[in-house]
Amino acid sequence: MATSILLVDDEKTIHETLGWFLEEEGYKVWTAESGEKAVALLEEREFDVIITDILMPGISGMQVLDKASTLNPRASVMLLTAYGTVETAIEALRKGACDYILKPFVLEELKLRIQRLVQYQAALQENQLLQRALNHLTPAGTILGESPAIRTVREQIAKIARTPSNVLITGESGTGKELTAHAIHAASARRGRPFVPINCGAIPEALLESQLFGHVKGAFTSAVQSSPGLFVVADQGTLFLDEIGELPLSLQVKLLRVIEEREVWAVGRTKPVRVDVRIIASSNRDLLNEVESGRFREDLFYRLNVVHIALPPLRERRADIPALVDHFIHKLNAKLATKYLGVGREALRVLMSHHWKGNVRELENVLERAMILGEGNVISLQHLPKDLVAPGAGLSNIETLKDAAQRFERQHILEILALAQFDKKEAARLLGISLASLYRKLDGLPS
């Protein structure tokens, strides 16, 4: 069956020239001179490829993209754009478009782009069938890397997954806290049950209580229907409380009660509901400092911190960057319909030396931008952001061996002190040093 194409543009010459060319190439073409006509056609039938101008009177190409994602989600969307709207086209790629081409364009280039989209659709369907088969063989959530720090994390996940205990995951933003939580759930006895994530800092306090614990119809003004709450939704499974440090004190009390009593009191309900939920919480804050400052309840902290996983920042596991780069290129090729094979030697050197304040998430964003704006099949220096490739960029952030050793020693001493409940004599014994040596090292730590 011939590939069906919807061509949307308010210029008559585009309809006549491009429509004729595509029909000569064997495609079945429908044309729409406006976004309104395009939406009407999308409501009537499905298309394999949609080619739309961005700037049109009335419904724009971006709005056609939005409608297509609902009315014809399997279609590959290509945007026609002028130089002045390239940024808009890039934003459209993030929203689900597959490609864009600049006006004026060469017909042969457009032909190749369409062929690639059609091939991508076929490959995507094949990959989806394969992925469904593989999902029965591999657990959700894969922690990539072979650095000592990541090996330790994987070992912790394997041990923790066998238990029903609550877990606290800490680490900077972008280090993979939700991925780690999902890996624990996927390796646990609860893997066939729901994994329910919620970001405690992304929901207004007034709504967060009903989101977590549920409410009955009429419990408050906007409660037009009852909601069971996420604890009930996650029953027999895992509830992931992301950024738990953002949870208001008033809700910390209620959360503590649920953990202790295994019962949820929905807003407006007179009887509790029994639940069996494993809680995995995460924070990019130092929750002990939050406890000392009175912003986080100490009793709740210890209920959540039964087992602790500290995720290392990317700058402390630079050896994992090549594996992460390969993973993200493969992932983004499927998303962007590109065919990148890897990164050049100099580009990889820059990626390895960058400080990565945003960690793994920042690395993925940098690669996505490079793959959208770049050409060819290898990411080179010219595709990377200028602040990464400036002379010496990232090199000043590399630690000396002495600095790295001092940082590790400081972190290890603090962890052992916490383990010994700040009994310095016991901490010295565990560290294998004299009490006097411990005091000397503590004098050198920043307050």
**Intertermini distance:** 72 Å
Structural class: alpha/beta
Q: Proportion of β residues?
A: 5-15%
Radius of gyration of CA atoms, rounded to a whole number: 27 Å
Shape: globular
Uncertain spans: 128-140
Strand order of the largest sheet: 2-1-3-4-5
Overall mean pLDDT: 83
User: Biggest sheet, in brief?
Assistant: 5 strands, parallel
Task: Give the helix level as a range of percent.
Answer: 40-55%
What is the count of helical runs? Answer: 19
Instruction: Give the number of DSSP strands.
Output: 14
Task: Give a verbal description of the structure.
With 447 residues, the protein is an alpha/beta fold. 48% of the residues lie in helices and 13% in strands. It contains 19 helices and 14 strands. It has helices at 12-24, 35-44, 61-71, 86-94, 107-134, 148-161, 177-186, 205-213, 230-233, 249-261, 287-292, 298-304, 321-336, 345-353, 359-373, 386-389, 401-419, 424-431, 435-443, and strands at 4-8, 28-32, 49-53, 76-81, 99-102, 167-170, 195-199, 238-242, 263-264, 273-274, 278-283, 307-310, 342-343, 378-379. The strands form four sheets. A five-stranded parallel beta sheet has the order 2-1-3-4-5, with helices on both faces. Helix 3 links the parallel strand 3 (49-53) and strand 4. It starts with a strand and ends with a helix. 30% of the residues are buried. Mean pLDDT is 83; it is low at 128-140.
